[in-house]
Design goal:
The protein contains 17 helices and 34 strands. The protein is α/β, with parallel strands linked by helices and 571 residues long. 46% of the residues are buried.
Length: 571
């Protein structure tokens, strides 16, 4: 038995309930109290959009556990409608506002031997004029939120505006559109799902548009004008959007004001914890969305609002509270996440390009578009992969993927490889399951290893789609696709020689270069890599477009029409 005779956990759901349940399994005699200000102490917050859309039919299905079940199975003293409004570190007690069913309230002091803070995060409310006065603005953070949004959708809402195109915002926009509501998705960043790199986010944008959603990026909501029948959302570019329903999903902030005021050290509002979840205060731990994590790739300190890391950390915090001598440290989360959008899944793990550039990390980016299973087996579809590896030694830094099938499998493998500190060449030797309906003899993960190894040892030199403007002015672009592929458009001024003819037409390349480097492209980067090897061994300064035209089109996005041209007639 540890010294923590009475454990008080503030907040349930992922981190708090995981901690309380583990603590009980470790100590049958401890008095474990869970204080939850809401009505539901353990619910599937990641399932909320699917209830709004109707895939989850009954709101009760969102309730993972109830206070009664938790008392019966784990002998936990779970107290909903108990909001912590104060903390006295010296006296080791919390002040709790208890709301009764009739709306009355009282304040009570509860002492603790050990205190675990899992307050979560609140929806960020930006300074939009008229936001607080509108009755049509809603969030999607709780079961009551989801119930209310579904009621409004079923009551005949016709026009919705979703502010914020993060994971919840995208999911909310999708389910509202699927209910027949005319939906506009507004995002301040240059593309939807800002944690993704632009070339992964672009297919998601196209999918959202196919679902009938009006996607507007690089714009903000400046004002909400309340009306009798609907509100008007005024955007920063002057656009006015009529809305019966407005969903606010522009991010979250740690809900830590009470604890910071009491003296618990915080940084930018997030609770500072050590590797075991201990705060600056004696006998106080913290876990979940409200805590500060250190990115294992870039070293940046930030909260990570994801259920998986919160659940795992809650368990390990309970270990340290009850058995500190054997407790394992909490691993810094990689931010692994996935979202379904229409027919697509988009996922990520580790660092993205922007965070690596901001941290000053030198890296290579690999783009691949392999099929999720054997191409000769019916139903093969591509998995679009983006993998960042450290320059020099190829340490895996981050990965993203988008596609119809096989995305979760590949990101999970890459997340495991990142956690293990593997280098890109190590992926070549991963022994992954193969049968034609499930994968390839050379799995997409193995192919990442092969391409990365070639880049690191100099066998393959890459140029990136983001370098297009520079390449257009300073290099000869060689398009090695077939005549038929070229009809869909090519890069202006490109020399076209199919890769199967290149060996016999190298003199044409030499004549066209005029001393310039050669930058090769094809559809996905496979044939251009072959062409690159021919050119290098013939003495040319050559590089292959990473990911080919598939990636280039995703990077230029809506500008494809103005940047890509029809092929020129042969002379």
């Amino acid at each position: 038995m540890s010294e923590a005779k009475r454990l008080v956990v503030v907040g349930g759901v992922a981190g708090g309930m995981s901690c309380a349940a583990r603590a009980r399994r470790l100590d049958e005699n401890a008095h474990i109290i869970v204080l939850e200000r809401g009505q539901h102490v353990s619910f599937a917050n990641c399932g909320l959009p699917y209830y709004v859309g109707g895939e989850i039919a009954d709101s009760d299905d969102l309730l993972v556990q109830t206070p009664t079940k938790l008392r019966e199975s784990l002998n936990l003293d779970v107290r909903p409608s108990h909001e912590v409004i104060g903390l006295d570190l010296a006296a080791r007690q919390v002040s709790v506002r208890i709301t009764a069913a009739d709306g009355g309230a009282r304040v009570e002091q509860i002492g603790y031997d050990a205190l675990v803070l899992s307050p979560g995060a609140l929806a960020f409310r930006p300074p939009i004029q008229g936001l607080e006065q509108s009755t049509r603005v809603h969030t999607l953070r709780s079961v009551p939120d989801a119930i209310r949004l579904r009621e409004l959708a079923e009551a005949g809402a016709q026009r919705a505006v979703v502010l914020g195109a993060g994971f919840i915002g995208v999911e909310a926009a999708e389910v509202l559109a699927q209910r027949g509501i005319s939906t506009t998705l507004v995002e301040f960043a240059a593309h939807v799902l800002p944690p993704l790199d632009e070339e992964v986010a672009w297919p998601v944008t196209q999918q959202l548009r196919r679902l009938g959603i009006d996607v507007r990026t690089s714009v903000t909501a400046d004002q909400i004008l309340a009306g009798a029948q609907s509100d008007t959302v005024v955007l920063s570019d002057g656009t006015r959007l009529e809305a019966d329903l407005i969903v606010l999903s522009v991010g979250v902030r740690p809900d830590t004001a009470v604890f910071e005021q009491a003296g618990v050290a915080c940084e930018r509002g997030a609770i500072v914890v050590d590797e075991h979840g201990r705060t600056s205060a004696e006998a106080v731990w913290a876990v979940g969305d409200a805590t500060l994590s250190t990115d294992p790739v870039t070293g940046v300190r930030r909260p990570v609002a994801l259920a998986g890391p919160a659940n795992r950390a809650g368990r390990l915090v309970a270990d340290h509270v009850m058995r500190p001598e054997t407790a394992r440290p909490i691993a810094a989360p990689l931010g692994t996440a996935i979202v379904r959008v229409g027919e697509l899944a988009a996922a990520m793990t580790g660092a993205n390009r922007a965070s690596l550039e901001q941290a000053g990390v030198a890296f290579h980016t690999l783009h691949l578009h392999p099929n999720q299973h054997a191409g000769y087996f019916p139903g093969a579809t591509p998995v679009h992969l983006v993998v960042h590896v450290r320059a020099g030694d190829g340490l895996l830094l981050g990965a993203q993927a988008v596609g119809e099938q096989g995305v979760d499998k590949r990101i999970d493998v890459l997340a495991t490889a990142l956690r293990a500190g593997m280098h890109v060449a190590d992926l070549i030797d991963l022994d992954l399951a193969y049968a034609p309906p499930y994968g390839q003899a050379k799995d997409p993960i193995n192919l990442v290893g092969m391409v990365g190894s070639n880049v690191l040892d100099g066998t393959l030199a890459l140029w990136q789609a983001r370098e297009l403007d520079h390449v257009l002015h300073h290099c000869l672009i060689l398009d090695v696709r077939t005549d038929q592929e070229l009809t869909a458009g090519t890069v202006p001024g490109a020399l076209h020689i199919p890769h199967t003819q290149l060996r016999s037409r190298l003199d044409e390349v030499a004549q066209a270069t005029e001393g310039r480097p050669v930058r090769v492209l094809c559809a996905s980067g496979v044939r251009s890599a072959l062409a690159h090897r021919m050119l290098v061994q013939a003495g040319f300064d050559s590089a292959s477009l990473s990911g080919g035209m598939h990636t280039l089109r995703a990077v230029v996005g809506d500008r494809a029409g103005e940047l890509l041209t029809a092929p020129q007639a042969p002379a």
